[in-house]
Write a structure and sequence with these properties.
Oligomer: heterotrimer
Number of strands of chain A: 1
Structural class of chain A: mainly alpha
CATH superfamily of chain B: MetI-like
Number of domains of chain A: 1
Radius of gyration of chain B: 23 Å
Number of helices of chain B: 13
Chains: A mainly alpha (about 290), B mainly alpha (about 290), C alpha+beta (about 375)
Radius of gyration of chain A: 23 Å
Shape of chain B: globular
Helix content of chain B: over 70%
CATH topology of chain B: MetI-like fold
Number of strands of chain B: 3
Largest sheet of chain B: 2 strands, antiparallel
CATH class of chain B: Mainly Alpha
Largest sheet of chain A: none
CATH superfamily of chain A: MetI-like
CATH topology of chain A: MetI-like fold
Number of domains of chain B: 1
Largest interface: A-B, 114 and 104 residues
Order of helices and strands of chain B: EHEEHHHHHHHHHHHH
Structural class of chain B: mainly alpha
CATH class of chain A: Mainly Alpha
C-alpha cells in the first residue's frame, strides 16, 4: 500500500496540471540547468587547451584539444600528492565530524537539558567567525600542539564550521524516529551505545549519508584554513593551485585541469547520496 | 516530540563541546588579546584598551566596505532564496529524473572557492569568456575589470551560481517531507496552486528556509576568496568587501591590533544580524 | 447526499491493464446506497485506499465509471465532486486559525463572507469546535484536528459523501470512543453516504451497517456484520473476520457423507458436490461443541485459553487442529471426547467460495 501511495504522489498532480504550465516549468528548469552547466563546461574546455589557446581563443568548442594538462598533473608528484592530501583531510574531517555530531544530535533530539538551546546557538555562532582573521591564531594554535602541516590540523580546524551543520541535519533525521524505539531497545537490555550503533544508526543511515555529504562539501571547498595550516607535506590541491598560479605566471590550462579534478570527488559523493537528499531533514531544530 | 529532562545528556554533547571550544576559544582569546594591545615587536606590547575599536569604527573605508557588504548580502538573499525555492518547486520529486537533477544541481557546491574564482575570471572575460562575450554581443557594454556595475553583476552571478544549489537542496528536502494527504486535502478543498504554496508549502519550509537564510547570510557576509580572485576588490574599491578589506589590513599592512579589533566587530555584526534573522523567523511560529 | 455507483472499475498505477496480477483494483462493481454507513475493510495493500481515492477523485481510474446519483463524475476533479475526506493523519493549514481552516474551502469557491461565517458557525457547533474557533489549529490535540479535517469537508452544503481513511489511527484510545460516536452522530444528523476505510475489524463491525471486505484488489463480500460473520461468502472473509478466525478442514464428499481426516458426517443433500476436488469445511469456533454421546467424530483436547466470558479450546481432529469456543458454564472436556457440529454453521467451501452448509444438506 505504501509503495502504491507514494507513487500516486507524483502522477496525480502531474495529471492535474495544465500542459502549458508543465511546459513553462520544464523551460525554466532547463534554462536554470544551462546557466549552471555553462561555467562547468567552460573550465572543462579550458582544461583541454594549451595556455596560449585559452588566452587567445573564444570558440565554443575546445581549440586543438589535448590531454597534456592532465598528463602533467598525473605525472608530477607535487600535483597528485596534493590531491591525495586534500582527500585525506577531508575524509578525516568527515569522520571526526560525524563521530562527535552523532551523540550530540542524539542528545538534542531526545533530551532537554540545562542550556541546550544556548549551546546549539553557540555552536552555530562559530560558523560566523570571519576566517580571514582567525588565520594567524589558528596557525599559532596548531603549531603549538605540533599538528601544523599534517592532515589532522586542517581536519580539526574545519570541524569548527562543519560540525554545527552536521548536528542540525542529524537532529532533524533523528527527530523523525519515534522514541518508543529507543525505549523498547533499552527495555530489551541493550546498552545505550550498543542500541545506538546496531539499531539507531541503520535507521538514520540516509541522514548520515546526507550529513557526510555536507561535511565533505564544506571541507573540500575551503581554501584559506587549508592553505594556512599546511606548508609542504600536507599541502592540498587547492593550495598547490594558488602557488602555481603565483610562481610561474598563469598556466590557465593546467589550472583548469586541476580545477576539473577538484570537482570529481564531489560528484562521486553526491552520486552516493542522490536518493537520500530528499528524505526528511525538514523536521529539525530551528 | 516530547523530550525527557535529563542533564546527563550533557555527556553526549561533551565531545562536540570540547572540539569546538578547542578551535574557537583559544583563537578568539588571541584575537581579543591583540585587539587590546599595541604590538611593536616580540615582547614589546602596550595595553591600549578600546583604542583600536575606536579607530576601526571611524575608518571611512571600513564604513564604506560595511555598507557594500550589507548591500551585497541583501542582494544575495533577495535573489537566491526565491530562486532556490522556485527551482525546488519545479524539480521532479521521484524517479531517475529527480536523481539526475539533484546531481546536476549539486555540482557547483563542490567546486572549491578558488576554482570558482578561476572559472568565472575567465568565463566572464569580455574577450575570451563565453559569458562576457555573450553579454557584449547583445549590445551591453560589460567588462568587470573596468566597470563597477559589471564587477557587481559578475560577483552576484557567480555567487548565485555557486550557492543557489544549497537553497535548492534544502528547499527540495523540505518539500519532499510534506505528506501527500496535504496536497490531496488541498485538491478536495479546491485550493489554487498559489494557495497550496502559501498555506501548505511555505509554512512547512520554515525550518529549512531558516537554515538556508542563516547560512547564505553568514557565508555571503564573509565572502573573501571569490572576489579576491576575480576582481581583487576593484575596480577601484567597488568590490572591496569587509573580508577583503580585513585581509589587506592584517596581511598587507600587518596592522594586527586594528585587524583584530576589526574582526571582533565583524564577528559581532554577523552574530547580531543572525540573531535578528533567527528571532524574526522564529517569531511567526510562536503566535498564539 | 448521493448514491455512488462504481462499475467495471479497474486500476493500475502504471496505466497498463494487460497483466491482471499487477492491478491495484481488479474489476469492481458496487453500489453505495444513499445515506448508508459503509465500512471498507481489508488488510494493508488490498486496494481499499485506492478505491477511496477514486471515489473522491484524487485518482482517475484506468478503466470503469463512477456515478453519483446516476451522473457520471469519472472525469470530474475532486473539488467538483463535493466530497469530504478525512485522512489517517490530521491535515490542517498550520498557519490558520480553526475558523480560517473551516472557511478555506468556501473561500476557494468565492462564497459570500456572510454565508461563510454562518456556515462555519453551524459546522463548528455540530462538531463542538465553537469555543476553539479563534485558536491556532496547529496547537490543538489530534482528536480536535481530525474534527477540523472533517469540518472542512462538511462546510459545503452540497456534500455528497464523507470518506474516512483510517481516521482514528493517531487518536488516543480513551478519546477514540468519543470521536467515533461523534462521527456516527454527524452521519445520523446529516444522512450522508459514509465510507469508512479500516483494517480493524472491530472498528468496522461496530461502526457500519454494511461492511465491504476487500482482498487483493477485489471486493470479496459486502453485507451486514452478521452476514459476514455467520456466512462468509469467501474463505478470506472467514479467516479475516473473527478472533480466532474460521477453522478450515479439508474434506471430500462421497456416498452422501462428508469425509475428512478424523471422522465423517452424514450429508445426503450435498451429493451434488460428490467427488469434487478442493472442498473444505468452514467452521466458526462456536460451530463446534462437546457432545454428550458419540457422534462419529472424536477430538482430543490439546489446550485451553481463557478469554474472559468464554474459553477457546484447541482440539486435535485427525491431523488438523481446530479452535472450539466453550461458552460460560460448559465444562471443558478432558482427553478424547465426541465433537458435535452445528448444522447451520457448518459451511462447505469449494476452493474459496461458499457452496452450501450442513443444514440445507440435511433438510
Amino acid at each position: 500500500m505504501t509503495v502504491i501511495e507514494t507513487r500516486l504522489a507524483t502522477d496525480a498532480p502531474a495529471r492535474a496540471a495544465f500542459p502549458t504550465r508543465r511546459l513553462v516549468a520544464a523551460c525554466v528548469l532547463g534554462a536554470y540547468l544551462i546557466f549552471q552547466a555553462l561555467p562547468v563546461y567552460w573550465i572543462v574546455r579550458m582544461s583541454l587547451m594549451t595556455p596560449g589557446n585559452v588566452m587567445g581563443r573564444s570558440d565554443f568548442l575546445p581549440v586543438e584539444p589535448t590531454f597534456d594538462n592532465y598528463r602533467t598533473i598525473f605525472t608530477d608528484p607535487t600535483w597528485y600528492m596534493s590531491f591525495l592530501n586534500q582527500l585525506a583531510y577531508v575524509c578525516l574531517n568527515t569522520a571526526i565530524s560525524l563521530a562527535v555530531a552523532l551523540p550530540a544530535a542524539y542528545a538534542f533530539s531526545r533530551y532537554r537539558f540545562l542550556g541546550d538551546k544556548h549551546v546549539f546557538f553557540w555552536l552555530f555562532s562559530n560558523r560566523m567567525a570571519p576566517p580571514a582573521v582567525f588565520l594567524l591564531p589558528f596557525f599559532q594554535l596548531y603549531s603549538a600542539v605540533g599538528l601544523f602541516d599534517t592532515p589532522w590540523a586542517v581536519a580539526l580546524a574545519h570541524t569548527l564550521f562543519v560540525v554545527p551543520l552536521a548536528v542540525w541535519i542529524l537532529e532533524g533525521f533523528m527527530s523523525g524516529i519515534p522514541r518508543e524505539i529507543d525505549e523498547t531497545a533499552l527495555i530489551d537490555g541493550y546498552s545505550l551505545p550498543r542500541f545506538f550503533v546496531t539499531i539507531f544508526m541503520p535507521l538514520i543511515a540516509s541522514g548520515i549519508g546526507v550529513t557526510a555529504f555536507f561535511c565533505f562539501m564544506f571541507s573540500w571547498i575551503e581554501l584559506l584554513l587549508a592553505r594556512t595550516l599546511t606548508s609542504v607535506d600536507a599541502r592540498p590541491l587547492v593550495a598547490t593551485m594558488t602557488r602555481t598560479a603565483s610562481s610561474s605566471g598563469m598556466d590557465w590550462g593546467l589550472l583548469a585541469a586541476a580545477g576539473v579534478l577538484t570537482i570529481l570527488p564531489g560528484v562521486a559523493v553526491i552520486w552516493f547520496v542522490r536518493n537520500y537528499i530528499a528524505k526528511g531533514f525538514a523536521l529539525g531544530r530551528v | 516530540m516530547h523530550k525527557l529532562d535529563d542533564n546527563r545528556a550533557w555527556l553526549l554533547v561533551v565531545p562536540v563541546f570540547a572540539l569546538v571550544a578547542f578551535n574557537a576559544v583559544i583563537p578568539l582569546m588571541t584575537v581579543v588579546n591583540y585587539s587590546l594591545q599595541d604590538i611593536f615587536g616580540p615582547g614589546q606590547r602596550v595595553f591600549i584598551g578600546v583604542e583600536w575599536f575606536r579607530e576601526v569604527l571611524r575608518d571611512p573605508t571600513i564604513q564604506a566596505s560595511f555598507l557594500r557588504q550589507v548591500a551585497f548580502s541583501a542582494l544575495v538573499l533577495a535573489i537566491q532564496i526565491p530562486l532556490g525555492i522556485a527551482i525546488a518547486l519545479l524539480l521532479p520529486r521521484v524517479g531517475w529524473k529527480s536523481s539526475l537533477a539533484i546531481i546536476l544541481i549539486a555540482i557547483p557546491l563542490l567546486v572549491p572557492f578558488n576554482v570558482v574564482g578561476t572559472i568565472w575570471q575567465v568565463y566572464a572575460r569580455p574577450d575570451i569568456g563565453l559569458l562576457g562575450r555573450g553579454i557584449n554581443a547583445i549590445g551591453i557594454d560589460y567588462n568587470y575589470t573596468s566597470s563597477a556595475v559589471s564587477a557587481w553583476i559578475t560577483l552576484l552571478l557567480m555567487d548565485t551560481w555557486h550557492w543557489t544549489p544549497l537553497v535548492i537542496l534544502l528547499a527540495f528536502a523540505g518539500l519532499c517531507s510534506i505528506p501527500e494527504p496535504y496536497y490531496q486535502a488541498a485538491r478536495i478543498d479546491g485550493a489554487s496552486r498559489w494557495a497550496v504554496f502559501r498555506h501548505i508549502e511555505l509554512p512547512k519550509l520554515r525550518g529549512v528556509l531558516t537554515i538556508a537564510i542563516l547560512l547564505r547570510f553568514m557565508d555571503s557576509f564573509m565572502i573573501y576568496t571569490e572576489p579576491f580572485v576575480v576582481t581583487g576588490g576593484g575596480p577601484g574599491s567597488s568590490t572591496t568587501f569587509l573580508s577583503v578589506r580585513l585581509v589587506n589590513m592584517a596581511v598587507g599592512q600587518f596592522d594586527l591590533g586594528p585587524a583584530a579589533a576589526f574582526s571582533l566587530i565583524y564577528f559581532l555584526a554577523i552574530l547580531l544580524f543572525s540573531y535578528v534573522f533567527y528571532t524574526i523567523l522564529k517569531m511567526n511560529e510562536g503566535e498564539p | 447526499m448521493a448514491e455512488i455507483t462504481i462499475s467495471g472499475l479497474r486500476h493500475s498505477y502504471d496505466g497498463d491493464l494487460s497483466d491482471p496480477s499487477r492491478l491495484a483494483l481488479k474489476g469492481i462493481d458496487h453500489v453505495w446506497r444513499d445515506g448508508g454507513a459503509y465500512a471498507l475493510l481489508g488488510p494493508s495493500g488490498c486496494g481499499k485506499s485506492s478505491m477511496l481515492n477514486i471515489i473522491s477523485g484524487l485518482i482517475r481510474p484506468t478503466a470503469g465509471r463512477i456515478l453519483f446519483d446516476g451522473r457520471d463524475v469519472t472525469d470530474l476533479r475532486p473539488e467538483e465532486r463535493n466530497i469530504a475526506q478525512v485522512f489517517q493523519f490530521p491535515v490542517l493549514y498550520d498557519t490558520m486559525t480553526v475558523q480560517e481552516n473551516l472557511a478555506f474551502p468556501l473561500r476557494n469557491r468565492k462564497v459570500a463572507p456572510a454565508a461563510i461565517t454562518r456556515r462555519v458557525a453551524e459546522v463548528a457547533e455540530m462538531l463542538d469546535l465553537g469555543p476553539l474557533l479563534k485558536r491556532r489549529a496547529s496547537r490543538l490535540g489530534a482528536a480536535e484536528k481530525q474534527k477540523i479535517s472533517l469540518g472542512r469537508g462538511l462546510v459545503r452544503e452540497d456534500v455528497a459523501a464523507i470518506l474516512f481513511d483510517e481516521p482514528l489511527t493517531v487518536i488516543d484510545p480513551q478519546v477514540k470512543f468519543d470521536l467515533r460516536r461523534k462521527l456516527k452522530l454527524v452521519h445520523e444528523t446529516l444522512k450522508l453516504t459514509l465510507v469508512y476505510v479500516t483494517h480493524d475489524q472491530s472498528e468496522a463491525l461496530t461502526f457500519a451497517d454494511q461492511v465491504v471486505v476487500m482482498s487483493d484488489g477485489e471486493v470479496v463480500q459486502a453485507g451486514t456484520p452478521e452476514e459476514l460473520y455467520e456466512r462468509p461468502a469467501h474463505a478470506f472473509v472467514g479467516r479475516f473476520i473473527g478472533s480466532p478466525g474460521m477453522n478450515f478442514l479439508p474434506c471430500r464428499i462421497e456416498e452422501g457423507e462428508i469425509r475428512f481426516d478424523g471422522g465423517r458426517l452424514s450429508a445426503p443433500g450435498l451429493r451434488r458436490l460428490a467427488g469434487q476436488e478442493g472442498l473444505s469445511l468452514g467452521l466458526r469456533p462456536q460451530a463446534l461443541q462437546p457432545a454428550d454421546a458419540a457422534t462419529g467424530v472424536e477430538g482430543e483436547m490439546v489446550g485451553l485459553e481463557d478469554r474472559g466470558h468464554y474459553r477457546i479450546a484447541d482440539v486435535a481432529l485427525g491431523g488438523a487442529r481446530l479452535k472450539m469456543r466453550l461458552a460460560e458454564g460448559v465444562p471443558a472436556p478432558q482427553g478424547r471426547f465426541p465433537v458435535a457440529f452445528r448444522p447451520g454453521s457448518t459451511l462447505v467451501f469449494a476452493g474459496d467460495r461458499l457452496v452450501g452448509d450442513l443444514a440445507d444438506a440435511q433438510a
